[in-house]
Amino acid sequence: MLKEARLQAILDHLRERQVESTAALVDALGVSAATVRRDLDELVSSGLVTRVFGGAKLTISEAVDEPFDEVLPRNSTAKRSIARLVATQLQPGSTVFLEAGTTCWEVAMAAQEMELTVVTNSLRIAELLLPHPGIEQILLGGSVNREYLCTQGAAAVTEIGNLLIDVAVIGCSGVGERHVLRDTSQRELEVKRALRASSSRLILAADHGKFPGIGAYTALDLTEVDLLVTDRPLAPAWADPPTKVLHP
Questions:
Q1: Please, which domain of life does this record's source organism belong to (predicted)?
Q2: Structural domain boundaries enclosing 177
Q3: What is the CATH number of the domain that holds 203?
């Protein structure tokens, strides 16, 4: 079994059982305990899994959004590397949508000295860019997600439909081997669909831990993305994606 398939199988087991022992994972995958431990170490480093005595559990709940400020520090080096590359794709004077994710927050950090119109549903991104006079901001309305500090719902989706966006930057919780974008909640699904319809160019910003990542919900797949920006070359299971890829 290829490593990518093993990682996905481990996540699937943890999703079904909440907590799983290392011994049970060895039996389920038909590999050695050393291999399972290495795979768990990789999932832990990606922030997807937490070690418990004798096994592991999912770090991220698929039912409830984690607080934005808890997610922000995870994989920060990878996110900043991606953000710098995304910033090179933005043209001065353009209208850019930044989705309410932590990688998009890093994109805002990287682009804060540019002259842009930034549309966002992220309260944190709006707060970050407020002191910068070269950035004209449009903050979407809608209901407020208190955990992830963003606006969402029908009002936000309607406003996106009334905008002409040059570049939209989105994130996800994972990219499956069949190239579907995965999310752990329904919070952003309608926003993503609306962005695809209203944007001239759609950029997915996803670090290596998002391959395969986790998530039971999907709104788009990679065929609908114009550019994938990540922090390292893609693993073999994703080596021939149906879109352009940019990495350091």
A1: Bacteria
A2: 68-246
A3: 3.40.50.1360
